[in-house]
């Protein structure tokens, strides 16, 4: 019977340790290297010595791997210059290893609200680098994304999730380009009530994202189930067609919609 110990409750560092084979975890640019954002302290924000980004090397199922995990409890998992560079460079180096014949798997734990507003364009540039790195690396190995909770995955990093070869989600996960509060602020409460949690999860929750084909594995909040899903998707190899390559199909689907306010049932009918 699978162990139901919570994956969501783990810190980013514990997630990376769990995903890598026992005894193989080796952190790169960890907290004792003091690589932190120079932009937070002048704004009265206490920086974190790893800038909320954990990069670890080791193996998964015996295969050389890099795991990059975002710490959702630090600044809502937001992406700044340093944290974004750590993720982008880790993926870029994995792609280069693959080009040199050293097959290296890539797994991303995505708990992020998107760009860190305090770092603005620096964060956006880093996210663009992450997008480019994922597209490069996924030519060689499947880039596996994991969204479990409690932050979800929003903003520019939701595009990173969409670029992943395969995506793992839980019922507690959320995935969307804009967060509920942003939509409500810009379009009004009649369009999107950020306090209506059942509605939010019915539109952007992990279960509906899996049901409509925007995620590949729907798992319980279980350390063992997440581990097993990662190994399964790695062993499936590079998909014949990435989700982001199906843009013509998605554009055709959107063209069939009449533009009225959408609900969960309509969304599922459109994309099922």
TrEMBL record:
SUPFAM superfamilies: ClpP/crotonase (SSF52096)
PROSITE patterns per record: COA_CT_NTER
Transmembrane stretches, start-end: 140-164
UniProt entry keywords in alphabetical sequence: Membrane, Transferase, Transmembrane, Transmembrane helix
Family matches, as Gene3D superfamilies: 2-enoyl-CoA Hydratase, Chain A, domain 1
GO biological process per UniProt: carbohydrate metabolic process; fatty acid biosynthetic process; malonyl-CoA biosynthetic process
Keyword presence, Oxidoreductase: no
Residue span, CoA carboxyltransferase N-terminal domain: 1-249
Molecular function via GO: acetyl-CoA carboxylase activity; carboxy-lyase activity; transferase activity
Source organism, top-level taxon: Bacteria
PANTHER family per UniProt: ACETYL-COENZYME A CARBOXYLASE CARBOXYL TRANSFERASE SUBUNIT BETA, CHLOROPLASTIC, MALONATE DECARBOXYLASE BETA SUBUNIT
Record NCBIfam families: malonate_beta, PRK07189.1
Protein name from the UniProt record: Malonate decarboxylase beta subunit
Originating species: Celerinatantimonas diazotrophica
